[in-house]
Specification:
By secondary structure, the protein is mostly helical. It has a domain of 66 residues. Helix 2 packs across helix 3. The model has no long low-confidence stretch (mean pLDDT 76).
Length: 102
């Protein structure tokens, strides 16, 4: 069990907002060695957490973005196909006749 000394809390996880920001920065893999070193001062289990967090979170973000883009593509293709198959509405044009003068 990892407990924090209340007189000196870790700076990256001192409140919920700071913890969320730290996790987002870790997702971008920026300054990971710095966070791992700071985490190892608290517990050796942080290395396991950081190493497992990066692939899982990256996979989650990738699947969310690919899922939303495929939904957009499907909506766009269905709207263009419905425009092509729908009958045209509006005024019907009559063909012009050419009159021949003798």
């Amino acid at each position: 069990m990892v407990t924090f000394d209340t007189s000196d809390p870790p700076t990256n996880f001192s409140n919920v907002g700071q913890a969320m920001l730290t996790m987002f920065v870790l997702l971008s893999l920026e300054n990971v060695p710095t966070y791992i070193q700071a985490g190892q001062e608290i517990s050796d289990w942080t290395v396991l957490f950081y190493v497992s967090y990066a692939p899982v979170a990256s996979f989650l973000i990738l699947s969310l973005s690919s899922g939303s883009s495929s939904i957009r593509c499907r909506r766009a293709s269905s709207s263009t196909s419905s425009r092509r198959s729908a009958p045209r509405r509006g005024r019907r044009r009559t063909p012009r006749t050419i009159s021949r003068s003798p």
